[in-house]
Amino acid sequence: MKAKENEILLIYNSEKYEDRKAKGYADTMKDHALNERDISKNNLTETQIAEIARDMNVDMSVLIDKNSDTYLHHLKDKGFAEAELTKLMVKNPDLIKTPIAYIGSRAFFVGSAYDFVNADFDIEGVRSKKGNVFEKKSD
Fold this sequence. Notes:
Oligomer: single chain
Distance between the termini: 32 Å
CATH topology: Glutaredoxin
Pfam family, one: ArsC
Number of helices: 5
CATH superfamily: Glutaredoxin
Mean pLDDT: 84
Radius of gyration: 16 Å
Family: Belongs to the ArsC family.
Largest sheet: 4 strands, mixed
Number of domains: 1
InterPro entries: Arsenate_reductase-like, Thioredoxin-like_sf
Low-confidence stretches: 122-133
CATH class: Alpha Beta
Protein name: Arsenate reductase
């Protein structure tokens, strides 16, 4: 998976509040179109999940959301091979740790608007003087 030039590909779960916030941050980016992929409505394939792990240079287990109900009630303290984890994530998209942003071929987890700022994007209200001075990172 890759984002086109001047595009952000955001993989998120609209059923998660933090993911909806990240989508809001991505919507405010200047000069970049948002291409969103809501995994609560359109599941990723095994190939796409494997590609995300490869693009992020992480083991499949890193893509598991350790706070999801499915993980906590059915998978915690159990060992699974990567192929099994991939199949579980296809069937249970809430298991996928999101949001994930692609900017070009670079992929990363989005924790806050500052993750976009660190990727050198100007988000109105985050770098501008309109942002909350107590939330801004010092340069």
